[in-house]
Specification:
three-stranded parallel sheet, 14% strand, 42% helix
Length: 332
């Protein structure tokens, strides 16, 4: 490989003093003079890359699988596809740390092509980065080499207990999730709530909301007032129909799940003809559980047919496939 025509990608504390077409840092923001910072370039081009990424996710949902779109292939009900519930479709950098890595790869790819590089030397030990760059150079027909005294490894996206749990088989993660939900939530559900069938659907509307983030003083007086909705509560007071509030409890320092049940009971004693309050877990029963298992098995069988989707994990006119960066999200 002619090093003076190659891109040198430095990761971690790696250094380079020989000739090169471009010397770029994968993680550093403050490179030496005449060297490039990939994270710095990401910040400068963030809006353009974000647009590219959002367009790609949209097109991925429309890619053809067995003569139907991915969205249709993963359809659960007539009006719902499981595609919209996946981490890839959610497009959240908090749920998918790999998105930022894809942004960096997009910058690297553009820099490599714009500078007219021919060959890439990766000085680092990130297994996923190494895998993506090696396969990309193979597609381009360009030479590739990794230089590092350290053995390649996959850098964990999580730490502590999350790292341990998220590396377990998915079926075991499900069992642990159910045990945790029982300990934290289901075992606290008890009598005190009203009959869900007390009013017909025509007589009421339903609002599903995150909980708590509420006015505790009003709640203790039996009046549910959410900070998420503010003046909507005043409007609902004036409208001539009953309201069902379904609370999606999220762990909070304001009140525990067990305390939420006491709040629910107090609120249901205040204006019961106008307002009814439920925690989402109240609607879970054996029939629902069996249906969940049935849907899961159906989706699992469909998932076995999606191995060919990984070829679509690249931007238009690009040969760089970033599937390894989202592989965990896709599998989960």
């Amino acid at each position: 490989m002619q090093e003076d025509s190659a891109m040198i990608l430095l990761d971690g504390d790696s250094q380079w003093s020989d000739n090169a077409k471009v010397v770029a840092h994968w993680a550093r923001f403050d490179p030496s003079p005449k060297q490039e910072s990939i994270p710095q370039k990401v910040e400068q081009q963030a809006l353009f890359i974000k647009k590219d990424y959002l367009c790609w996710v949209y097109e991925l949902g429309k890619c053809q699988i067995n003569n139907e779109t991915l969205i249709s292939h993963l359809q659960i009900f007539n009006n719902l596809s499981f595609w919209w519930m996946t981490k890839v479709a959610a497009k959240s950098p908090f749920l998918s740390p790999g998105i930022y890595q894809i942004f960096k790869l997009r910058v690297l790819e553009k820099m490599y092509l714009e500078k007219g590089c021919n060959g890439l030397i990766y000085c680092g030990n990130n297994q996923l980065v190494h895998q993506v760059l090696r396969d990309w150079c193979k597609e381009l027909g360009h030479p590739y080499k990794r230089i590092s005294e350290k053995k390649c490894q996959i850098e964990p996206e999580w730490t502590g207990i999350k790292r341990l749990v998220f590396n377990l088989p998915y079926w075991l993660q499900v069992l642990l999730f159910l045990v945790r939900k029982w300990v934290m939530n289901f075992r606290h559900i008890r009598s005190g709530n009203i009959n869900k069938k007390q009013q017909s659907i025509q007589d009421s509307v339903t609002v599903v909301t995150y909980f708590p983030n509420i006015d505790l003083q009003k709640a203790n007086d039996g009046r549910f007032y959410s900070r998420y909705w503010e003046k909507l509560h005043q409007l609902l007071d004036e409208l001539p129909f009953a309201v069902n509030w379904v609370w999606l409890y999220s762990k909070s320092g304001q009140i525990t799940y067990k305390d939420s049940i006491d709040i629910r009971n107090k609120c249901n004693q205040h204006s019961p003809d106008k307002y009814r309050h439920f925690l989402l877990e109240e609607f879970f029963n054996l029939k629902t559980f069996i249906k969940c298992i049935s849907i899961y098995l159906k989706l699992y069988s469909k998932g076995l047919q999606l191995k060919g989707v990984k070829k679509f994990f690249k931007f238009p006119a690009s040969k760089l496939n970033f599937f390894p960066m989202l592989q965990h999200d896709w599998n989960s």
